[in-house]
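Data card: per-record layout.
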Amino acid sequence: MKPTPSDDPKATGPESLTFTLHDTPAPMRDYSAAQSRRGRITMLVILFACALPVIASYFTYYVIRPGGRTNYATLIEPQRPLPSLDAVPAQDMNGHSVPLTTLKGQWLMIVVAPAGCGKLCESNLFLQRQLREMMGAERDRIQKVWLVDSSEAVEPALAAAVAAPPAVATYRVERSALAGWLEPEAHHQLEESLYIVDPLGNWMMRTPANPDPVKLKKDVDKLLRASAWWNRAKDTP
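The structure for this 237-residue chain is written out next.
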């Protein structure tokens, strides 16, 4: 802005000034919308990067080799997530309510049997233990689980055996509640199979009744290899 003398020759006192406005600065650009869009894109990229290993491993296992892959156990489709405490009330052996969802983070190998644990139950618990040990260095990625579907006490000797490290996570549940989540093989009982749940908490595989350990080991090997780059053993206290 340039000051100019007044053109009035009769002006008295201090000289009057006038101002001519030549230009104004451009208004500051509003960057808020662009920043918001950039932030959303960055967040989506981060979420996709976190999910990519899981997506890729499942794609590899289920899609890439459908012709060359044979499963001994039955794949559950669609998969069924671990139920909430409301859907399947569960208690530890001290009577405290515990959501089954707390088991997420590891591969679960589940045996269902009453507290009396007859010959079939003992056989499945032994198979569960042997399969875990056969995984060698990867065994800590597997959690053994026994869902006790009756109200009587577990025999002290058996309770001590399943509590010995590496312990079997043992929970008491109602058999009728389990029916809304696990499903036995056709024409068989719930306790005749083992049930495999992935680290995301989805029941995704059921063994045949009286499973063959060698054939089942091959399935478990495949699962552990397919998930090796995104699943690690859960930290233990």
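Known properties of this structure: DSSP finds five helices and nine strands in the chain. Confidence is low (pLDDT under 50) at residues 63-67.

See the next section for split statistics.
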